[in-house]
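input
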Amino acid sequence: MASGLLALLDDVAALVKVSAASLDDVPAQVAKTTGKVSGIVIDDTAVTPKYVVGLDPKRELSIIYQIAKKSLLNKVILLSPAALLLGFFAPWAISPILMVGGAFLCFEGYEKVHSMFSKHHADDQSHSSEEVEVITPEELEKTRVKGAVRTDLILSAEIVAITYSTVADKELTTQIAVMLAVAIFITIAVYGFVGLIVKADDIGMHMAKENHHPQVRKFGQGLVKIMPGFLKALGYIGTVAMLWVGAEIIAHGIPFTSHALHNLEHALENVPVLAWIAKALACAIAGLVIGAVIAKVVALVSSLKKKKQPVS
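output
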């Protein structure tokens, strides 16, 4: 009886040691994954502020909190378990699902680029041919939050998938711990920085008050002046990043294009910055083309549906 109990305790101790060793590897895996998803993190950070700009300044942090909370819940409750299940039962399905998400990002990115170049024409047409729809601030806020969460869901899915691929050969406890740690760390980092960006003008105005040191006031005034231009530039960066990330997701799902991107990076490996820029630019252009094709298909399908509808 005593020997059996000792054997059981030895087994428990061995299991604890293995689990502890696995958990010791978590920080290294988190750091490794964070580096791999840096492009998506840039995209998420650059895209989100546009959903908040123009709304009631008093509601900005609340809106960011709503988006961050839903982003974290999506990663932890929806995407991470889905990735684990797919990785176990149908690992072949992960790549096609991500490619569909990448196509959606390309489509959204193209729509934004198209709206930039056709804004004035569209505005003239809308004023002359249809009435302007009026919505309440509360409805606008809900619409913005839904749009931000929808885009974040695609980006979060890619982050979770990359995280899973990094720890796919590890034990289940390590996989769960790393995926949870990455989800929490990236969500806090992205939306904490977004909150800082959005409230930077308020911080600048506070620093520019008369009771502060002249140098502090000068810095605050400069911060207030540059923020509108910075937010505008960030919107452009977010659109480009959306195209770039969407096309890269699709490219990694196709062996030929994945090899082409790898060869491009390899050819410029002596100049890492140039390699990164060339890859991002190639993906952004490809994303624009993919988005344009999808937009044409969507418009065609929409017109066909309208023709099939009976005239009342």
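quick obs: Confidence is low (pLDDT under 50) at residues 8-23, 126-130.
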